[in-house]
Amino acid sequence: MGRHFDVNSSEAFSHEDIKGMTTDEIHQCMSHFKKLIREGRVTGRDTHDYEVEYCYLDNECQSRSRYEFTSPKSSDRRPKSSDYRTRSSAHRTHKSR
Fold first, then answer.
1. Which of 12, 18, 45, 48 has its CA 20 to 30 A from that of 73?
2. pLDDT for 19-74, tens place per residue?
């Protein structure tokens, strides 16, 4: 098991920490930092550090969703071998005309 991340923490995460988080942990941390940013703005505190952390977490979340969206299924990686034979025989027939 990896490191347990406290979503109520305002600590900065390293790149390795973020990579080791589950997607749910990233979403929880993003919600927490969003809350800290909102509360900081209301009270007039500096929120720059929270915004930076939020951006790193959001970037990782977007990278993962982009990978999950574009990752090919094992059955879609290449056509069946019978498809190659069909294409090449059709190509030869067409070429010989």
1. 18
2. 999 999 999 999 999 999 999 999 999 999 999 999 999 999 999 988 776 656 65
Angle at 62 between CA 29 and CA 2, to 5 degrees: 45
HSE-CB for 35 with a 13 A CA cutoff? 10
Classify residue 27 as exposed, middle or buried by CB count within 10 Å of its CB (0-12, 13-18, 19+). Answer: middle
3-state secondary structure of 21: coil
Higher local confidence (pLDDT), 92 or 21: 21
CA distance 93 to 44: 76
Which spans in the chain are helix H? 15-20, 23-43, 48-70, 81-96
List CB contacts of 19: < 8 A, sequence separation 6 or more: 60
The tokens for 68 are 């999950």
